[in-house]
Specification:
globular; 22% strand
Length: 193
């Protein structure tokens, strides 16, 4: 099928109806899932205000996109609609998308795309047939049509947040290929200064 730009954004209305501030929704994702995890792209800071530039990190074997891909592989078993998924891309990057954003809330504008879960592998591919939208950041939101789970990956934090079924989150946290920890949506995680 391939990822295609949606003509309208009603599939994302459920995110707006969360009633959350733009920052809370963009960084931490929607509420209401039984359990949450954070996939950490770099470790959490050791103390408040610590700057990421002051720490030398070991290079991870997997890129951020690949780490999210591992989580999506687990999540694919926890949706009835893997062939209908949605992806939001923040407009704050210089891309080759010639149309206005089609999903807007408060301080963030997005383009909404539709595709299959397996299409995620083509996101930002250098082959213009597979990805005709130019350089693009990782999706800010990913969810299947049945909304069984949601991955939130804003540009600012050092992690992606996942809300899903208890068993799915437990499997993500246990997966040795990624650094995932349980998350409490009521508590702010540590942030780099």
């Amino acid at each position: 099928m391939g990822i295609e730009l949606c003509r309208e954004s009603s599939a994302a209305d459920w995110l707006k109806k969360q009633g959350l501030s733009w920052w809370r929704l963009a960084v931490r994702g929607p509420v209401g899932y039984p359990k949450y995890a954070r996939v950490r792209f770099i470790p959490d800071p050791d103390f408040p205000g610590q700057k990421a530039n002051d720490v030398e990190f070991d290079q991870k074997e997997l890129s951020e996109k690949e780490q999210v891909g591992v989580a999506l592989d687990v999540l694919s078993r926890y949706t009835t609609t893997p062939n209908e998924c949605y992806f939001c891309m923040w407009t704050g990057w210089d891309t080759a998308i010639p149309v206005a954003p089609n999903f807007v809330f408060s301080n963030r504008d997005y383009w909404l795309f539709r595709g299959t879960l397996t299409d995620y592998a083509d996101w930002n591919d250098s082959d213009p047939v597979r990805w005709p939208y130019g350089y693009s950041p990782d999706p800010a939101f990913i969810w299947p049509a049945d909304r069984a789970w949601c991955v939130t990956n804003d540009v600012d934090p050092h992690f992606a947040t996942i809300g899903a079924d208890i068993e799915a989150i437990d499997q993500i946290v246990a997966d040795p290929r990624i650094d995932a920890v349980l998350d409490d949506p009521e508590q702010e995680p540590p942030y780099w200064g």
